[in-house]
From TrEMBL, chains A, B:
Name of the protein this chain belongs to: Uncharacterized protein
Provenance organism: Trifolium pratense
Domain of life: Eukaryota
Length: 389, 389
């Protein structure tokens, strides 16, 4: 689809959208950023490799070879720009540049894990940018303590993720995967699909978290005539809540057993890590379907695999794992009734163009000593954004 | 999900919904039906086999073993009820009963092909019921000429099919299938998915046909912020059209080249058979995605396979084939970038309960010599319903 759109036009248009979200304040960046701002910078980008696909689509800017489409712009200003997918261990390309890089750009799809140790080693580091949403690959407390700024391209792929979640809800509810297997293996056994295929209509769908993505999902679920529940720290503003027809559940554990389908839309924090453990899963409805495009570590890996094997969870779909890339022997690859993929939902071509534009915008501001759009900050002046506290 | 609902309760509730749609007229059935009405009937149901899945779900009424859940009721009134999946050729169970059956029930999922020849042999035949929607497996002109009544359970699975279409639109747009393959084969290659994964937002979706299913699909697509086009014989009533934000395209061939995604929602008739042939496909946007849950024979089978191989069609998904069951060597099983399944979208557990209730309702009326809900008729008093003319 639309393979021939020029990347530059779309980056410009996405960029202006993102810029328009920004606060107009231009106060100076404090702490380590300020100290180090100005002059030629060493910027390292860690992305997934494009390989044979790199040149297949001019808008495929999210891979190593695409490098977010900012190489020419960076180099024309005298900055050094290194891109790699080699991120693990002391011999990795990333590790080699840790001591003298100024800016590290990474993505949730192929995360550069930024530990306290790496932060300590990175004496010139000013800025950690996430091309996308979700900065849990960074030790945020260590980053805050070191006076670093961490920012993401908030909003850049919320629509992409919400759409993907709805796809996964339908894939599980309608039991798509066994049907697809039959198609490609020469089989035809309608009963093997139909005995556990359902309409979405009339079912109860609960989202754990109703932030930007959760709200977009609820909007898209509205015409399906489902019973919509949501749990969050905050209640949705009354007008939107009414429009969505969604019911607020203050107590997570009161909501979960009501749900035929549960969708995870909360960031990974110390509070949500391992939230779905064996005990909590045992209290869910037998036959529950779970969609998780948030973060793999919100689930207890083995507890999910066991509940899929026992049938307590009737279907599990998501694109997030821990760690990433998922090892070949990750149990979610082999458990029954799953519809897993690698981490992809936030890196559609459309999303790549938006987060590439957002990264460029923030770099530009950083070089000028200007503030970022307020909602992009994850760590600012030693403080974590509220969703990570 | 919801595996423990009692079948009987749901059938009752679905039945009353369907009854409420009926016209209140109760004029007598004319021609062969009238002649043969009254007395003990031989009813044959042709469904897909449940096999090991038959007893896995008490609501799985759509298989041979489930027999629509009407055996006890029929037999208690002295009728004979034969169910089978064996429908092809002169030695089949169906063929054996053709000479003396009064009522034939079949489904689009495992269609009993009712040819002019079979109609000629079926001297006692009064009524042909489709458990579901779509009666193109019947030679409707021959049925009309023979004075038979043909009826379906209109509305019974429109929601089921519309939901499934939206799933397939997302599966193709987001490039789900290669990601799933990676998950199960131990691979991790985000680029292999992302280089051709898109958001649905902002794309142009056109439906060929905007009847009951097409309208439900448009409603569900609305919050995705897409450009919605539709072609049909009839324009949607202005208020609904405005609510959907869909644009009417009187000329099919003017609409098709505008679409990033085309969805087929038209019955199979002599006008739509082979509608998407090599020439028409060649005029579509390069990289178009096609979803077809309507009927396989609306497409030229080989032309679709060739266009998927060349990349002109970037993705094709549907649950309908010709013939059904699809033979092991059907080219759609092996063409690139497909997301095919056996014919399943209209036979979710929820749909089965609704069409089982609708069939029971029509049998009850037939035995009493009462009319069916008007919208259920496909052939009535020698006349074809308008969508089949």
């Amino acid at each position: 689809m639309a393979m021939k759109r020029a990347a530059s036009t779309l980056i410009t248009s996405a960029s202006s959208t993102i810029s328009s979200l920004s606060s107009s304040s231009a106060s100076s960046i404090i702490t380590r950023n300020l100290h180090a701002s100005g002059g030629k910078k060493k910027i390292v980008g860690v992305f997934y490799k494009g390989n044979e696909y790199a040149s297949s689509n001019p808008n495929f800017v999210g891979c190593v070879e695409g490098g977010l489409g900012i190489r020419e712009w960076l180099e024309s200003q005298g900055h050094e720009y290194i891109v790699t997918d080699d991120k693990e261990g002391l011999d990795s390309v990333l590790e080699k540049h840790i001591p003298d890089l100024h800016v590290l750009i990474s993505t949730p799809f192929h995360p550069a894990y930024v530990t306290a140790e790496r932060i300590k080693k990175a004496k010139n580091l000013e800025l950690l940018l996430t091309a996308g949403i979700g900065s849990d690959h960074i030790d945020l407390n260590a980053a805050a303590a070191a006076g670093l700024t961490v920012a993401e391209v908030t909003g850049s792929n919320t629509v992409s993720v919400a759409e993907d979640e709805l796809m996964r809800i339908l894939i599980l509810t309608r039991n798509f995967v066994p049907g697809y297997h039959q198609a490609i293996t020469g089989d035809w056994n309608v009963a093997g699909i139909a005995h556990r295929a359902y309409d979405l209509e009339g079912k109860t769908v609960g989202t754990v978290g109703a932030g930007r993505i959760g709200k977009l999902l609820l909007q898209r679920l509205k015409p399906f005539n489902v019973n919509l529940l949501y749990h969050d720290r905050l209640k949705i503003e009354p007008e939107l809540e009414k429009e969505l027809g969604a019911t607020y559940e203050e107590d997570l554990d009161a909501m979960l057993p009501k749900c035929d389908i549960i969708v995870i839309n909360t960031p990974l924090t110390e509070k949500t890590r391992g939230l779905f453990d064996k005990n909590r899963i045992a209290k869910l409805k037998k036959g529950v379907l779970i969609v998780n495009n948030a973060r793999g570590a919100i689930m207890d890996t083995q507890a999910v695999a066991d509940a899929c094997s026992s049938g307590h969870i009737a279907g599990y779909s998501g694109d997030v794992w821990f760690p990433q890339p998922a090892p070949k022997d990750h149990p979610w690859r082999y458990m029954p009734n799953h519809a897993m993929t690698p981490h992809i939902s936030g890196t559609t071509i459309d999303a790549q163009l938006r987060y590439a534009a957002g990264v460029k915008d923030m770099l530009e501001r950083h070089f000028k000593g200007e503030d970022f759009p307020e909602q992009n900050y994850i760590v600012k002046q030693g403080e974590l954004a509220s969703q990570y506290r």
